[in-house]
Write a structure and sequence with these properties.
By secondary structure, the chain is an alpha/beta fold. It has helices at about 15-30, 45-60, 75-80, 105-115, 125-130, 145-160, 185-190, 195-210, 225-230, 255-260; strands at about 5-10, 35-40, 65-70, 85-90, 120, 135-140, 160-170, 175, 215-220, 235-240, 265-270. It folds into two domains: about 5-120, HUPs (Rossmann fold, 3-Layer(aba) Sandwich); about 125-270, HUPs (Rossmann fold, 3-Layer(aba) Sandwich), CATH 3.40.50.620. It has ten helices and eleven strands. Helix 4 links the parallel strand 4 (about 85-90) and strand 5. It starts with a strand and ends with a strand.
C-alpha cells in the first residue's frame, strides 16, 4: 500500500492553498492524498472537510482522496500522522493565529517535530505553482544535508525542472548553514573547498536520478541570505534538519527559522536520517 501525502486543513485560506499545492504534488508523485482536520467541535467537521475535498477534486480530478477528522490538537495529530506519510503539507497560518504572524504556531511545531518531510505552503500564487521551473536545496557542511538533497533531486525530477544547490560559507567561520556548530565544522570547511562540498553532496543522488539538470551555487556570506535570494525565483525551497543527541524533535536552527518565516515560496523541512 502506498503511503499518502497528508495535508492539514482547518478552513483557513492558507490551508486551502495548502490543499491546492498538495493535490498537485500527490498527482506528481502518484501517491494518495489524505486530508486531516483536527476539530474542536463536531459542527465544524462537514463544512471544513467537505469544502477541502471539493477543492482538491476540482483542481486535480485524478487525485486519490481520503479524509479524517480527529478530536485533538492539530500539531499532535499531524505529527502522529506523519510517522507513516510521504510528507506533511501545512499552510503558513491557521484560523487561530494572530494577524501579522509570519508563520503560524501549528506550522512551526509540525516543521520542528515531524519525522517526515514537512512542506509549509507560503508565498504568492506564482511561487505556489510551477512557473519558475526551479527547486532550490541548501547544502551544508557535514552530514546535515544528505536526505534533503535526495528529496530535492527527486522533486526536481518529478517536476522535470532544474535543481539549484546552494552552499553558503565564510572564510572566517566555515559553512554558515549551521551557525551554532562547533569549531571542527569550520576546520573541516577549510579542508574541503566549498565547491567540493556541493560535488560530494550531489554525487550519489545525481547518479541515481540521471538526467536531472543541476546548477551549483557557492556563496560567501550568511546561508539565510543566500537561500532566500535563490528562493526568489524558485517553486520550492528545501532545507535539512537534524536531531541533537539527547533532544526530542528536530533542531531547526537559526537559518531554518529564518527561511521558514521569510521564504517567498513553499519550503520543505527534511529530517536528516
Amino acid at each position: 500500500m502506498t503511503i499518502p501525502l497528508v495535508v492539514g486543513v482547518d478552513g483557513s485560506e492558507a490551508s486551502l492553498e495548502a490543499v491546492d499545492w498538495a493535490a498537485d504534488e500527490a498527482v506528481r508523485h502518484a501517491v494518495p492524498l489524505h486530508l486531516l482536520h483536527a476539530a474542536a467541535r463536531d459542527h465544524e467537521v462537514s463544512d471544513v472537510i467537505g469544502h477541502a475535498l471539493q477543492r482538491a477534486t476540482e483542481r486535480v480530478p485524478a487525485v486519490r482522496l481520503s479524509s479524517e477528522v480527529v478530536h485533538e490538537d492539530a500539531a499532535s495529530a499531524l505529527i502522529d500522522k506523519g510517522r507513516n506519510a510521504f510528507a506533511l503539507v501545512v499552510g503558513s497560518r491557521g484560523l487561530g493565529d494572530l494577524a501579522g504572524m509570519l508563520l503560524g504556531s501549528v506550522s512551526l511545531a509540525v516543521a520542528a517535530r515531524a519525522d517526515c518531510p514537512v512542506v509549509v505552503v507560503r508565498g504568492a500564487a506564482e511561487h505556489r505553482g510551477a512557473q519558475f521551473g526551479s527547486v532550490v536545496v541548501g547544502v551544508e557542511e557535514g552530514e546535515g544535508s544528505g536526505t534533503a538533497v535526495q528529496f530535492a533531486v527527486r522533486e526536481a525530477r518529478a517536476r522535470q525542472c532544474q535543481l539549484v544547490a546552494v552552499h553558503a560559507w565564510s572564510a572566517q567561520y566555515g559553512a554558515l548553514t549551521s551557525p551554532q556548530a562547533p569549531s571542527w565544522y569550520a576546520l573541516e570547511a577549510h579542508r574541503r573547498p566549498p565547491a567540493q562540498v556541493l560535488d560530494d553532496a550531489l554525487r550519489d543522488p545525481a547518479e541515481r536520478y540521471r538526467g536531472t539538470s543541476v546548477s551549483r551555487r557557492v556563496v560567501e556570506g550568511p546561508a539565510r541570505r543566500a537561500l532566500l535570494e535563490a528562493a526568489s525565483e524558485a517553486d520550492l525551497l528545501i532545507v535539512g534538519a537534524r536531531r541533537r543527541q539527547g533532544h526530542l524533535g528536530l533542531q531547526l536552527g537559526l537559518t531554518n527559522h529564518a527561511v521558514l518565516h521569510h521564504a517567498p515560496c513553499p519550503i520543505a523541512i527534511v529530517p536528516q536520517m
